[in-house]
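Pasting as-is:
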Amino acid sequence: MPVCIFVLETGLRKINGRLFYVQKVREDTYVLEEVDEIVHSEESKYQKIDVVREKHYGLCLFLDGSMQITEGDEHIYHEAFVHPAMITHPNPEKVLIVGGGDGGVLREVLKHNTVKKAVLVEIDERVIEVVKKYMPSVPQGSFSDPRAEIVIEDGFKYIEKPRNEFDIAYIDLTDSPDSPIYGEEFVKKLKNALREKSVVVFQTFGLVEHLGSQQKIVSELKKYFKYVGIYGAFVPSFMDLWTFTYASDYFDLKNVEEDYVRKTLDERSVKTRFYSPETHRMLFINAEYSRVADRLKKL
């Protein structure tokens, strides 16, 4: 009897006459997003870049077959990523962003009137140019802000240069949890680039997509920082609770009162759609799921 083996290839695929974007989120799990329109597609020097229009979330950016952001809910990811650290720090003046070529993190950082300079280091200039042309609602002109410095360079190389320079750093890279950005060499160099009273925040993937990885990253960062913790927000287009891991020798992001968050947002005239004093507390409650996920990983 003949055996039929079905191989599901990732990327843009026609299935039963309909166009889908197929993502592999785990070894045994795929996600199919129905696509209304292919807006742009190219191979840059570093990766495949696709912008498509999806039925529920509008324009979506994919890099190497993996969804990065959508117009519909990117504000959840970017506001959750940026504001807990920015609010906790009493006077964040200089901020480093490694990755983040879509401009969403930069946009949220620049909402804070304390910021004098924000340096965005992106290895692939084409990501910036594609987003500026096809998804301008994400950066909202932040690349042209006079406080923004855009550096086209490998973040690993850039991080070797500055010393005691940044108040906050955001690591918004699409590497795997086993990437060297969570290892000794990168973390030591990053810490050298930070001021004494500083915070670094890593995006640390989805709980479902990378089950158990967050606690491994926390354990590694605890070797170098006094305060290390996880928080998270459910991002509908990712179909996952997306996590962020912070590290600092001075600030513990979870121990911030709602009244302080409200007061600081008002004083800095920061307008948000998702992040709020109540949301700040919720983000850290969500982190409890990472401990459950870690136990499931061990079963």
